[in-house]
Design brief:
The protein is an alpha+beta fold. The protein contains 32 helices and 55 strands. The longest helix has 24 residues, at 1092-1115.
Length: 1431
Amino acid sequence: MEKRKMTRSLAFLSIVLALVLSIIVGLFVTGYAGTASAFSTMENNGDFYPDYETTAEAQEAAKELNIQMAEEGTILLKNSNNALPVARTEHVSVFGISSDTLQGTAASGWGAVAIDGQVASMAQALAEEGYRVNPALESFYADHEYSPSAQGRDEISEFTPAVERSFAEYKDVAFITVTRYLTEGTFAGDHKTVLNGKGIGVESTGATNKQVLEDAESDWHADLATNEDESETYKHELMLTNQEEALLEYVKQQGFKKIIYLVNAVVPIEYYNLENDPDVDGILIISRPGAVGLKGVANIISGDANPSGKTNQIFVKDYTADPIWQNVGFNNQVNADYNSMTFDENGVVEDTNANAILSKVTYRYADDASEESYTTTRNNIYNYTTASRSGSATAAPDPYGIFGIDYEEDIYRDYWYYETKAADMNAADDVDHNAGTEWYRDAVVYPFGYGLSYGSDFAYEITGITLDKGTLEDGGSLAKVDIESSAGNEAEIKGGTVSVKVTNVGGVAGKEAVQLYSTAPYDSADAPVEKPYVKLLGFEKTGVLQPGASQTVEIDFNIQDMASYDWRGLADGNTKGYIIEAGDWSLRAMGSSNSWMTADAENTDDDYDAVDFTVDADAYLLLDDFSGNETGNLFSPENGVFSSVRDNTIEGNRKFNESATAKQTFMSRADGFTTSFPQAPTAEDMTVSKDALTGIAYWHKFQIGEGITSFNEPAYMTPLSGDNVSAGAFNNPTPEDFEGQRYQDGQDVWSLDGEIVEEGTPGAVKIVDGATDFPWIDDFKAAQAEMAGWTQAPNGTETAAETKVSDMSGLSPYDGGEGAEAWKSFMDQLTYNEMEWLINRGQKRAIERIGMNALSGGDNTNDAGGYRWACNGMIASTWNKDIAYKQGRIIGSMYLLRGTNNAWWGGTVQVIRTVWAGRNGEFYSTDPMLCGFIGMNMTKGVREKGVATCTKHGILNDQQSPRVSAMITWISEQTIREIYAKPFQMAIQEGTSNYFMGSYANIGTMYNGINYNFVTGLMRGEWGATDMSYTTDNHSMVGRYTPGDLMGRVGNDNMDTSSGKGFSGTWDDETSTVVYSMADKMEPASGNMLSIEDIGDLQWYLARNNATIFINMHSKTQMNKNGVDASGWTDAAAEIALTQGVAASNATVAVKDGITGAEYVNYSVTEGELPEGVTMSDDGALTGTPLTAGDYTVTVTAMADGWVENEKEVTISVASGFTVNNTNGTAGTAFVSVVLFEDESAEITAEGLPSGLSISSVGDITGTPITPGTYTVTLTATTRTATYTDTIDIVIGGTASAPEGGVTNVAVSGTNVVVTYENGYQATVALPTSSGPAGADGREIELQVTDTHIQWRYEGDTEWNNLVALEDITGPAGPKGETGATGPQGPQGEPGTSGEGGCGGNIAGTVSVVAGILALCAALFVAIRIKKGQK
């Protein structure tokens, strides 16, 4: 459809030109370099346009990109003897229980709606590529319908003789598919064997049988689970099952020439045995390739595409030897008691001793000072049940208590650990410096960033490094003065660009992903800040390089990404923040994380080159390099309740464990990863102070005016009542007569043995510090001067606001000038209840009077824009930022075109911590920078289409077990900033994401959705994400610890509150503040504690501030619908007048200025039909000549900017083209009428004229009508080009003249006989009304008149009987008529005298004879009545 531009300004054209040029020069894919201002959303003044005309066109683009994803994201791990590619002439067999139902997309399965052309079967994909695929084996798997989760099912025993005979013909190549099944869910999500005692090998997720490891004594795994007496050892789910191993042996025995594995998994299974098996020729990771991705996989297999995918995480030999193994899930991977527990289908413990067992895996507290007995937290703090959500008063307690996860590996996970340990071991090896290499070769199967190709080989040469100021040469130096930053002192050098010349020195054309790493100095003797040996900074992918060809790629890097975060102040004993330490540094261009190990400085063919340089002195980077805002500790011991470190030995850190010496251990290079290597939690680690529990309960129940006495009391469960803007009513508030300390901002709270006590009580512990734990008080005080100018509309206001949300799209509330003043005026229009309702309950609802459209989100990477994409792991494995960016553009365009959603809950940039996590299919990588670059480019693409892109789930959303049980995450601030928060920072700052979804996890003891230092301190503060809206994940899951007052205080502006409390207090229009009924029970202000009056103003500040954030996000996305206002069109008159036979002129469904704010508008008829001969163009103009008169109602859709839809009904009235000057006449009187048509050349005819009238070709109707009546006449006007018709009614009055012609019909009509003549004249005669005596049988008869007879039959019979022939009917002579033409002889009667108007026969006699005959019939057949005996 042509886009008809109504207006397109020069400014808009310049933006489009700049956008095109920027794509050409690669600005969108060159890296994460700092810019002058945050949130350059690349909006066209807030307007957005799809890249495609239709959804179908976008779907085709998605399929094309999906195939490219699979081609570049499929990873070739092994290719012995060039087993791949496979020629299409070879006969192949495809094995594996999932071979016909491969896992296709990010989450489990393929999604609810199939994509046209979707391919889920590997055999089908190969057959479509022309391979000769074993049909017997393909049919076997299709018929057996194996579940993708049944990894342990034995198909060999089910092979039919026909299947086994087929191998003789199809034995060139055996493809063996292996699938690993992951999904979301508290128990079912994570790998089952490891995390909750369930077994693999069966289809039911609730099964308890396990895979027994045969010959366990010779197995090399470090720490597999065993039964209680250790007589059995169990496999974990990343090992090949016994059945999968048996299948491999079976295939070997069949004598296949090649055996190639196709791994359909988003997690790295343990490849050690397959890599070292000489009979396994090839391994391809095909991940989850998307709707048509198997076509791309088939292109890899055939060699039409050369593999260029690289691993998105490190693949190791033994995951039970990994540093994370002991601290994941329930922290109890090898506990015999726990692994013997049984579970019901919902994952709930069935054992009677469940509480005792769970006390080992949940936090517990000592029942008394002797610490000889303990109580699990399972039954405390929340007393929260699933039934509670629906208001049930009785239910079993929550089966889970408070869990904790210790990130003791600290920053050393994945390749950061394996590369670092190998390098340090080599450095410590005084003999041949090879100890680390030998260890690495045994421990690691495939490095991070590793992948093979079909004969391509690449050599790297760093040709130059340019910095923001100057260049960096090999052997050169960076000066502290140039790179450090602090308040008022921005760094002169924030980053640079490394130019790498890449040459294909192989024999086959291919692409290469070039990776840039940094190496920082580390001297264990100086107790420096921890840092990995190599750390990814950036990457770029070449185009297709022919053999011998070269390309120079430019890889941008940031100095801040090279830095380490020093949360302890180790470098100078005081300063805390990002640090570039003095010493020897390297920038390395590498083909994988391990290229440094095998690099030969004299071999120019290596995929490696490096530039070494020094930094002259320690340099602290205390300003964020993107926003320019100050940085500093937010989650460390000095941050009070926000500390994420579990260590009772650090002075000032909030005490958590009962033991004074309890602490988590962080891994360190200083001891060679020996004594600091993570261990499973001990009893000391699991025993919690009661005072700490009361501190947790305090925050998780925080609601102004309410209160608690200890952790061990019923929690609130307060579903909101109603769904409107009135103040919410809550269930179960703290009683009015509560005597304890009620919640107030800034208060100190003391506890003794878990009971809240007064300050000064001997032995009491301060569990809440009014000075450090309420940072929002400073924000409130800073805003009080501004608040003096605020007003709010009275509650209940319904009139439309003067300023609408669309008016605010180009204005910032935070610019301190024109924008801020405009937003102040806009917010003054709202009522307090509207603001409070919006952020507490109105997340997905509209406020019509301010023109605010409802937020409508689409969830899941699966359903991104209506397409089934490859999983994010495959996309990351392409190492191609441009693919991610294009994907984002397509997703955004689809959202615009579909019109069903305006927000996407799908920007999942969470870093993978552990291979065991259930949602890894949604995440990109274990590396923060790979996650960040792919995620930010995808996000950027979506955001450019105006979709509110919800980056999720931030942060620490690693595992599904036990994700909603107040899972406390203990982690260092360095690890938060350098790893888990980093990709979110990139997606928000560089990817311009303006929407954020929190995870279920706690940061320390504070759930991230009630964590001020995370939401406001880090993201909105340091990162500068002032335009970012924050929402909770499914609030019904976490409602027990997310009180509305606290969420509002931390800046949670977009609460998904399906349960839980909203804001407390009631707005008072008269005093313009929030008031409390329990004000007299509150304490006066003291210290940092606010008075109840100030708290009322604080509530107002919070409601308005959060509502501003949320509405601002609306105004700068497609929720604003480009600011299009179609009310002038929809409200305008919707009637168009046309004339039949006259060409439409100046007729249009458009209305001048009816639709404003649009760049262009296209109109179309979406329901109903236009008048025949008329068409409508895209601009709404009606053209053509209508053929038929009448009223036509159609639905017209106005599509603004290619996606903003409005519709209305339009009536097109086509007036008749015929003019008739007379339509009334009298029977027997001459009639004259003139018919005219708009086209005077038309020949006019008529059908249905009254008898006696005729029409000439020029439209003259003449004659004498005979019979009265109303006659519908069809007029036809025929021109040289068209035929036009219309109908008129001619009304003939008066009394009919004498009949003419013979009798054409005689019919019985009720109790009358009607005789019709040729001229239409009808004579009616009444039948006799009397009847004879009752008939004997009481049966009715029926009469009819045919052309020849009057007939009769009994009712219900099928045959008619002749009663009398019409020709035999005669009557007496008729009366003498007037003189006229001689008529024919009448039957049996005396001839009448000739005269004018003679009837042509003795009609009176005829009628009387007919009447007589019918009377005779009535006498003979007396049963005319329905019932027997009636008269």
